């Protein structure tokens, strides 16, 4: 049978192996992997010579926010079209953004809202995590079990933000539900009362500049909430994933839990490697560009995050892309420059730069090896969120989601060259080594030389299986 695409002489890198091989693709899937596939392959649609290139699984960005309205009226710059276009350009071929419930809303209605929002727009494949903000009896007894069964097998909960947070009792209820139904729970771990207290104190002293965001969101508040979330999950005996971990205090809690055999997973993001709280302290209001929660900390925290990536405390590396424009079309800032830090929408853009940053700063600088890079950016998220082995690896039968890397290319990050709808990148001017020269999603080329070339609507919605890593300790292992 004819191959649609044959990639030859690829240095294939998976989470486990590195080998030179040809990759045969038919109907969007990898159907052959081996030496000398060209001989005897018969007619081939397209042959791509990958000599000198590294071929890795397409990136999976398992934490990004697209078209998600905020409680205070702030709107995200990226919808599913611009967000997935930008992701593709950077080598990401699957995204898992959020379908967020607002309090009082049915969870089913929230999921339907995000489907309406994404239908026909995505350039790459996508699944949804839910955000559960209102775990009432209907949600717990009817909606969540049904939705988990239908392919929404992960959800995020918050311990902070007034319009999102759950109290400990509610956390216990949703954790118990996740245990019963086999869902993966992600938690935003910051102590809401600590942050509110510090925010009021700072604002009363007139300390309203962007840099005070980092003081209000203390690492102690992150540590406490991380420990509490772990304890609640241990009490229920259910796995848990702590998202966007910023530094050593929370890392210690996760490592402690893991050392005691608990299935606690960790995620971190580029901002915790590349930025510090000093980046919030810039001329004028510029620091607002680096406001996210938890905030970036200091160089020692960056070092701790690298070590946790290297040693396996973290399984997932995501962007937490939360796209807000710095200025509107008239050059006006969202709440004006005199607005307090507590009014700045939290989150920074990063879908397109995530892979290049970890490749350059991690693999090229030899802080992590290439197989770890693949595990963190593709294989582990696929396993943890129930998409493996369809996504996240290079194997016969898997989707042909591939990135072809020139490991030596030099690139300077410029927002002008990015494809999101945000008017800045926090990484402007950053010089990187390594570039995705081609990305394929189910065998279709979706990016070439940093430019997207797929079509909106080509991306498919993915139903997620109940993830093996979400099984409680009482059941069979397998991760
Ligand atoms: O500041 C952040 N991280 N904003 C995005 C929303 C979230 O909590 O992940
Ligand atoms: Zn969060
Ligand atoms: Zn987020
Ligand atoms: Zn405001």
TrEMBL record:
Residues 54-446 form the Amidohydrolase-related domain. This is Dihydropyrimidinase. The keyword Metal-binding applies. The keyword Flavoprotein does not apply. Its cofactor is Zn(2+). Residues 1-35 form the Urease alpha-subunit N-terminal domain. It holds the Pfam family Amidohydro_1. CDD domains: D-HYD. It comes from Halomonas litopenaei. Keywords: Hydrolase, Metal-binding. Belongs to the metallo-dependent hydrolases superfamily. Hydantoinase/dihydropyrimidinase family. Coiled coil: none annotated. InterPro entries: Amidohydro-rel, Hydantoinase/dihydroPyrase, Metal-dep_hydrolase_composite, Metal_Hydrolase, Metallo-dep_Hydrolases_sf, Urease_alpha_N_dom. Gene3D superfamilies: Metal-dependent hydrolases, Urease, subunit C, domain 1.
């Amino acid at each position: 049978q004819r191959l649609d695409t044959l990639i030859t002489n690829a240095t294939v890198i998976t989470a486990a192996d590195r080998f030179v091989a040809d990759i045969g693709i038919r109907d969007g899937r990898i159907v052959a992997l081996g030496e000398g596939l060209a001989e005897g392959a018969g007619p081939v649609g397209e042959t791509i010579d990958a000599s000198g290139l590294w071929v890795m699984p397409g990136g999976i960005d398992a934490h990004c926010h697209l078209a998600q309205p905020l409680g205070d009226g702030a709107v995200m710059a990226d919808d599913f079209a611009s967000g997935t276009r930008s992701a593709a350009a950077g080598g990401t071929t699957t995204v898992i953004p959020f379908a967020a419930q607002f309090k009082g809303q049915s969870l089913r209605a929230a999921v339907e809202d995000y489907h309406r929002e994404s239908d026909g727009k995505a350039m790459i494949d996508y699944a949804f995590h839910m955000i559960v903000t209102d775990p009432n009896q209907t949600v717990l007894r009817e909606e969540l079990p049904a939705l988990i069964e239908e392919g929404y097998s992960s959800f995020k909960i918050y311990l902070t933000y007034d319009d999102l947070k759950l109290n400990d009792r509610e956390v216990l209820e949703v954790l118990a539900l996740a245990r019963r139904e086999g869902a993966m729970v992600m938690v935003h771990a910051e102590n809401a009362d600590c942050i509110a207290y510090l925010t009021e104190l700072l604002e009363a002293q007139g300390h309203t500049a962007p840099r005070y965001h980092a003081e209000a969101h203390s690492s102690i508040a992150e540590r406490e909430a991380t420990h509490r979330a772990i304890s609640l999950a241990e009490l229920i005996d259910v796995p848990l994933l702590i998202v966007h971990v910023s530094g050593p205090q929370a890392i210690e809690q996760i490592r402690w839990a893991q050392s005691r055999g608990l299935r606690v997973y960790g995620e971190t993001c580029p901002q915790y490697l590349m930025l510090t709280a000093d980046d919030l302290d810039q001329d004028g209001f510029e620091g607002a560009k680096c406001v996210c929660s938890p905030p970036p900390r200091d160089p020692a925290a960056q070092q701790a995050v690298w070590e946790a990536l290297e040693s396996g405390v973290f399984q997932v590396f995501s962007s937490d892309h939360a796209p807000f424009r710095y200025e509107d079309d008239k050059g006006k800032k969202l709440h004006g420059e005199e607005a307090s830090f507590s009014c700045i929408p939290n989150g920074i853009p990063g879908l397109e730069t995530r892979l290049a940053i970890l490749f350059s700063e991690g693999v090229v600088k030899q802080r992590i090896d290439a197989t770890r890079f693949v595990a963190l950016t593709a294989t582990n998220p696929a396993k943890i969120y129930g998409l493996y082995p369809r996504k996240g690896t290079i194997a016969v039968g898997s989707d042909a989601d591939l990135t072809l890397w020139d490991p030596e290319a030099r690139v300077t990050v410029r927002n002008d060259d990015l494809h999101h709808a945000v008017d800045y990148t926090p990484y402007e001017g950053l010089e990187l080594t390594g570039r995705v020269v081609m990305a394929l999603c189910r065998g279709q080329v979706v990016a070439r030389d940093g430019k997207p070339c797929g079509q909106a609507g080509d991306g498919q919605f993915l139903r997620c299986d109940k993830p093996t890593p979400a099984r409680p300790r009482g059941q069979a292992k397998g991760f």
